[in-house]
Amino acid sequence: MANDLSLGQTVWFFQVQSPSVRLAVAESFTGLYADTHDRPRRVTVKRLDRILNRLVFYRNLCAHDERCYCARYDGRSNENVYQAIEDLGYLLDKDDYLKLFRRFSTLVARVACAMPSRSQAVLSAMGVCERELADRAEAILRS
User: 89 pLDDT exceeds 80?
Assistant: First the structure.
């Protein structure tokens, strides 16, 4: 059924499920994470709700050709596109997330090269600290 639903519809469908079903879904993401990482990370229903809502927000911005690099989910400064990238670490297996993160890091590096005088402002708007990207990639490998 999920193949026929949009991301927004899938999130809505998850949110209207009974607490036991929502917990089972969150626990399945906890299991996926544990299967592909050395250190466990618990995905709670509350965390999954936040992640899914944030991802729907950014997906909708992208789908409607709106500028998403500097958008803030719910107007909060820490709810940025980089947080959405990190959220995917809870939902994807380690190899897929590492591929995504490396592609993201490559795009960040291209911004820095293409616009050296503006790159720090762009990265800051995204919530990215360039110095931390290499450390984050290493942390993903170790997790």
Answer: yes
